[in-house]
Specification:
192 residues; two-stranded antiparallel ribbon; 5 helices; single chain
Length: 192
């Protein structure tokens, strides 16, 4: 089973992270809207998570809402409610920063700084999320998008495993993964 996380970006592109059932990130891609729709049609995921961060500007929020409406209209997804029906294809809203706040012991630094990016990247393995560093961008702006997309795909994984909490914000129901520490010897690395 594949879990998708979608991050809406300021330049009207979308960053998509694919996570497998062992919490391994198998790919990270960037798309324009048409490419994203083509990808969703061919990837055929059962759970898609879309990020809604508090720091989003109006364009990012509008594009994220548009992705959700396309998933519902074109691909027969259902927007998740409080009770999850696993027989449906689900789309959820999340806020990756609310997950990272559980993961980081100190104050969460801004994702827009190099230190904030490093803080998030360093702490991903604690939740059992395995990322091969060669699939990550070396450019700060892209890396920021990719890390957020990774946490967003983990939200989809958490829905499947019923390890989430729900928070309400501005009329949106956000599904936030619950952080559970995964010891090094329990982290499974897929051979992909």
């Amino acid at each position: 089973m594949i879990f998708l996380g979608i991050q809406s970006n300021r330049d009207k592109t979308f960053t998509v992270s694919q996570m497998d059932q062992n919490r391994n990130i198998i790919s990270i891609s960037n798309f324009w809207k048409e490419g994203l729709l083509w990808f969703l049609d061919h990837a055929n995921p059962s759970i898609v998570s879309v990020n809604f961060s508090e720091w989003f500007d109006s364009t990012q929020s509008k594009n994220a809402y548009e992705v959700i409406s396309k998933l519902v209209e074109l691909f027969d997804f259902e927007e998740a409610e409080e009770s999850i029906n696993r027989t449906e294809k689900l789309v959820i809203k999340t806020d990756a920063d609310l997950f990272f706040k559980q993961l980081v012991k100190k104050d969460l630094l801004s994702i827009k700084t190099r230190e904030g990016i490093e803080q998030r990247l360093y702490n991903l393995p604690k939740a059992g999320i395995i990322v091969k560093h060669e699939i990550l961008s070396k450019e700060k702006d892209y890396l920021q998008r990719e890390i957020t997309a990774i946490a967003t795909s983990f939200a989809a994984y958490s829905i499947h495993h019923n390890q989430f909490k729900i928070e309400e914000r501005e009329g949106n129901r956000l599904f936030i993964p619950v952080y559970r520490f995964v010891p090094k010897d329990k982290r499974i690395i897929s051979n992909r």
